[in-house]
Amino acid sequence: MNHQQILDKQKVRTRDKYLLKEKYEIQPTKKVKKERPKKFTDLEQKLHDIQEQNMPNVDPNKLFDTLKTADFSEFLKEDSQRQECPNCKKKSKIYCADCLTVLCEPSQIPKVQLPFRLTIVHHDQEKTKKSSALPVKLLIENNEENCKIIHYPSHEIPEFDPDTTLILYPHKDSTRTLDLDLETMKQIKNVVAIDCTWNQTNSILNNFTNPKYKYVRLEEYNTTFWRYQFHQPNCLATIEAIYYFFKEFDCNFSSKQISQNYVYDGKYDNLMFFYHWQYEMIQNHYKYKTSNTFRKIKDYIKYNENEQKQEVQNEQNIEQNQQQQNNENSNTEGKDNE
């Protein structure tokens, strides 16, 4: 055995000895540094308190109790008639979802003044009737100028000015809306909302190739949407995201302006007017107009105590009827075999 072979053998023994030691010896635990609570300056604390006061994490079950939407009780009545759309001739109650035409008295539809333009990029594969966002155009003051809808891919997505545009999407490089600085907010003239399923977002996002685009994300809110989804409960309907964005932007902008007495006054709540109305329609339908149970989302229908007892009784009756029908089918099959 030459000298080099002896050295190699010693290296192997040393390595094996180290591995055995590492495997069987108890390693000392590393001390984890405790994160110190963030210290705010007087100014930062003031801004933080204003934002916390006006942007609470609202319980989704109580969201509609806190909204200051205009009165839509007239449209909840059973005798309220559907009107024919002058364009497509289809009948609807308040507006035509296909043509985005108001079918009731225009004075019954509230208007919201936005601080800048809202652009909605809607995927063509999503039916317009299922969109929660498209009807919002009817609620925006001077909507031809302040709200633009782009149907993709039948229409191209234009290049936006990255200095004056925000894209509302939880991108990996996104910034919290509440963290935008005052100078950035003063320059904003357009916000882009994406209206499609989560599986279709990439096909739209691939059009935003400019690396200078600013993405913004919201605080975490749980959705109140009635359509079942396989994602997390904090995946919002598009109209919910639009509403929360303008509310957060207003809170942040006003607090950065050092408005000590700022309190959110509900100025953007009517963006949820149609959404709130549809929510109440669904609640009333399953409470009073049908014996069926809303099974897509557990506890979605809000019953009072007496209604809850009646709902439990209805479910029991349905189960008993199904069991009875199954027994009758079994008996019939048995007689046929005889």
UniProtKB/TrEMBL annotation:
<keyword id="KW-0808">Transferase</keyword>
<comment type="similarity">
    <text>Belongs to the TDD superfamily. DTWD1 family.</text>
</comment>
<comment type="function">
    <text>Catalyzes the formation of 3-(3-amino-3-carboxypropyl)uridine (acp3U) at position 20 in the D-loop of several cytoplasmic tRNAs (acp3U(20)).</text>
</comment>
<keyword id="KW-0949">S-adenosyl-L-methionine</keyword>
<feature type="domain" description="DTW">
    <location>
        <begin position="92"/>
        <end position="287"/>
    </location>
</feature>
<dbReference type="Pfam" id="PF03942">
    <property type="entry name" value="DTW"/>
</dbReference>
<feature type="region of interest" description="Disordered">
    <location>
        <begin position="308"/>
        <end position="338"/>
    </location>
</feature>
<dbReference type="InterPro" id="IPR051521">
    <property type="entry name" value="tRNA_Mod/Golgi_Maint"/>
</dbReference>
<dbReference type="GO" id="GO:0008033">
    <property type="term" value="P:tRNA processing"/>
</dbReference>
<keyword id="KW-0539">Nucleus</keyword>
<feature type="compositionally biased region" description="Low complexity">
    <location>
        <begin position="313"/>
        <end position="332"/>
    </location>
</feature>
<dbReference type="GO" id="GO:0005634">
    <property type="term" value="C:nucleus"/>
</dbReference>
<dbReference type="InterPro" id="IPR005636">
    <property type="entry name" value="DTW"/>
</dbReference>
<protein>
    <recommendedName>
        <fullName>tRNA-uridine aminocarboxypropyltransferase 1</fullName>
        <ecNumber>2.5.1.25</ecNumber>
    </recommendedName>
</protein>
<dbReference type="GO" id="GO:0016432">
    <property type="term" value="F:tRNA-uridine aminocarboxypropyltransferase activity"/>
</dbReference>
<keyword id="KW-0819">tRNA processing</keyword>
